[in-house]
Amino acid sequence: MRCRLLAALLTTLLPLSGHAQQSAAFSEQAEVQAFIVDMHKQHGFDISALTSQFASIHSNATVLRLIRPPARPSKQRSWQSYRQRFVNGPREAGGLRFWEENGALLQRAEAIYGVPAEIIVAIIGVETSYGQNTGSFSVLEALASLAFDYPPRAEFFRSELENFLLLSRENGDDPLAIQGSYAGAMGIPQFMPSSQRNYAVDFDGDGRIDLRHSTADAIGSVARYLQQYGWQKGAPVAVPARVDGDPAALIAAGIKPALTVQELSARGVFMARPADADAQRAAALIDLETPGRPTQYWLGFDNFYVITRYNRSSFYAMSVFQLAEVVREVRHNRLAATR
Q1: How far apart are alpha carbons 117 and 111 in whole angstroms?
Q2: Which sequence spans correspond to the domains of the chain?
Q3: CB-based contacts of 145: which residues, under 8 Å, 6+ apart?
Q4: Which fold has domain 30-66+133-228?
Q5: Which keywords appear in this protein's UniProt record, sorted alphabetically (predicted)?
Q6: Residue 281 in contact with residue 295, Cβ under 8 Å?
Q7: Is the distance from CB of 291 to CB of 78 less than 8 angstroms?
Q8: Which H helix or E strand runs over 153?
Q9: I need a surface site. Which of 19, 107, 239, 247 has the fewest CB within 10 A?
Q10: pLDDT tens, residue by residue, 90-147
């Protein structure tokens, strides 16, 4: 009898215990309530509608775990490991197919914005495998988690949350129905909400910007984004380099080009192929480290730096550049073989 009573008591308590493990709805947080009022005052949002939406979402522990840098990195950064994730057979083959299927759009984007077709292809390939993996997180919940429960970047993500709600209203979308990355990036090119509102274009001419379903809008928007950040038509991106001496100071100076090729050569940094760029062109020294292997050095020019405005990582930018080069070369060779 005691056993049956104890089992009944446990059965009664378990649902309560499970509910207690889930955080309270965002609508119950004072900060969120103040945000809702602010959205009403600044942009005319309905308070009850926003409150209802925030009542449907909770702080996402997975989002918060993924956004945090590891307290103790499990291993040293490896350029070779990073590169293999993005410059590989499937992404190269996917890039060729994507180019074949969207050649006219890529050609038009390059003509308008000056960004080579292969760079556009490579960014979309690295970001979402050409639209195949656009994210499965609720964007509203992800951005709210980062805006209200991640103090180190709360200001940035609160701005993105504001832009996301504005974007959803402008497009007539239900913010609860939109999925993306754990950081709130959306669609085929993985634009953050502010980037979509500031840089995206209606490239298919249907009167609506839709980066989740329109490949044309994604292609045009990637090209315009890079152009707006200073892409130089016809200029080089990066070239291999050789380093004599200790490059620590030049590496510490960052990836924004500040010294000319000539000035870098005076400091012991030389292009592997001297004719690759004008001696007066600005560049930065890029180091690509792999544990147990010699560090690869490159000179990154202004266009390399522009790619890092999409993702602020030299590994990312170099992966985009190298995938672009491989896809362009293979496509060129195939076309030449058919002539």
Answers
A1: 9
A2: 30-66+133-228
A3: 59, 60, 63, 64
A4: Helicase, Ruva Protein; domain 3 (1.10.8)
A5: Signal
A6: no
A7: yes
A8: none
A9: 19
A10: 999 999 999 999 999 999 999 999 999 999 999 999 999 999 999 999 999 999 999 9
